[in-house]
């Protein structure tokens, strides 16, 4: 497993080693809902390992979730159900660290759907298996591991895993996080004016 005690740069370089990690993103029917789309790429190469919609019927897509990702029940017609998708996910992640931009959310949704379907989540239930790219990005920006910063990936699973990989590569290369720094500057200006900013 990658060590969380490394600096963000050393951690990211370890994550980019061949076969060390994969990046996962899910889109859901709602914040506490079921997975309706999932993508997984190899962290080192960017190779797409899984990219599919997921039929979550009878769960309905909440209007607020639709506003985020634009997916409808019609889009999910003919998509595989969670048990089939999970079998692929479990095989892909069996020997890798699982990275996600907001790992707590993505792992939570995977575990939720496994419970719903009566599936043993095997290694994906292990908290140490999942590591959070957003936390390490925030740490690099001086916000600490509990900081929050939007990804800006477009809210479709494949676009988001690719955007997460770009953040990972930026951390590994030691390049400045100009997007993150810009958000922090906006936050500071708004806080000085007494305005609450959601980022």
UniProtKB/TrEMBL annotation:
Key words of the record: Exonuclease, Hydrolase, Nuclease
Domain Exonuclease: start-end pairs: 20-177
Pfam families: RNase_T
Highest taxon in the source lineage: Bacteria
Record bears the keyword Lyase: no
Residues in coiled coil: none
PANTHER family given in the database record: DNA POLYMERASE III SUBUNIT EPSILON, PROTEIN NEN2
UniProt-recorded name of the protein: DNA polymerase-3 subunit epsilon
Organism: Rhodococcus rhodochrous J3
Phylogenetic lineage: Bacteria, Bacillati, Actinomycetota, Actinomycetes, Mycobacteriales
